[in-house]
């Protein structure tokens, strides 16, 4: 058998490593709470913008079909590939070249997700095309509150019936409500996006530092400096 060499860190070094990684985990957790709070407040602003008038969702948007993209055809890149259950990988080319809304078509039927960057929705999803000048973020909350249960298609594989979904009634916003949403909710969305992206960067830093600290590739002091700069 081959021989393996392991570096055994002293107890103070182990504690220092734990503190470095713990600081990153704490910041990621704080960001997660801030994202949740920001979106909760933004949804409250959305709800205040609604009038008593109801119209079909299809008056305001279309559901476009995602596109098949098997894992064997994906080229790893910066674009998230999203299915009805969430992000399933990456690709080097977007199908939708803007932030937007994804609705689960098969599998996790009726789930609604906001994508804050260009993305590739696969064929288990719909993506939303906005027919109005009202921000997509507003319709994200309207769709989250829609009742898509029981709107299965008639095919052998259960899935969300597009026509039935777009016939669902939704409360329309008032003009003053739209303005209030743009003034108050959109900045909250931007805050949530910024914190989500920062958490992704911090997670990558943590995952890079852990093995480097354990095998001695990077010194604890250098890791502490990188962490201080990041958080």
UniProtKB/TrEMBL annotation:
UniProt keyword list: DNA-binding, Hydrolase, Restriction system
Domain of life of the source: Bacteria
E.C. no: 3.1.21.3
GO biological process: DNA restriction-modification system
GO molecular function ontology, one term from the record: type I site-specific deoxyribonuclease activity
Hydrolase recorded as keyword: yes
The keyword Protease is annotated on this UniProt entry: no
Gene3D superfamilies hit by this protein: Bipartite methylase S protein (1.10.287.1120), DNA methylase specificity domains (3.90.220.20)
Domain Type I restriction modification DNA specificity as annotated: residue spans: 54-163
Pfam families on file: Methylase_S (PF01420)
Family statement: Belongs to the type-I restriction system S methylase family.
Protein name per Swiss-Prot or TrEMBL: Restriction modification system DNA specificity domain protein
């Amino acid at each position: 058998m081959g021989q393996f060499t392991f570096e055994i860190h002293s107890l103070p070094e182990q504690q220092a490593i734990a503190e470095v990684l713990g600081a990153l985990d704490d910041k990621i957790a704080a960001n997660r709470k801030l994202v949740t709070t920001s979106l909760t407040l933004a949804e409250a602003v959305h709800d205040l913008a609604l009038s008593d008038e109801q119209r079909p969702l299809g008056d305001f948007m279309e559901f476009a079909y995602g596109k098949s993209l098997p894992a064997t055809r994906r080229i790893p890149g910066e674009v998230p590939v999203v299915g009805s259950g969430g992000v399933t990988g990456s690709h080097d080319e977007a199908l939708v070249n803007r932030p937007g809304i994804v609705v689960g078509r098969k599998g996790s039927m009726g789930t609604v997700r906001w994508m804050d960057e260009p993305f590739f929705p696969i064929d288990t999803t719909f993506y939303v095309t906005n027919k109005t000048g009202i921000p997509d973020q507003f319709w994200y909350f309207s769709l989250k509150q829609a009742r898509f249960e029981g709107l299965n298609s008639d095919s052998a594989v259960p899935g969300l019936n597009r026509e039935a979904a777009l016939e669902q009634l939704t409360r329309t916003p008032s003009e003053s409500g739209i303005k209030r949403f743009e003034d108050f909710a959109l900045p909250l969305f931007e805050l949530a996006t910024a914190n989500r992206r920062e958490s992704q960067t911090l997670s990558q830093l943590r995952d890079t530092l852990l093995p480097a600290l354990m095998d001695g590739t990077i010194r604890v002091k250098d890791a502490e400096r990188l962490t201080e700069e990041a958080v």
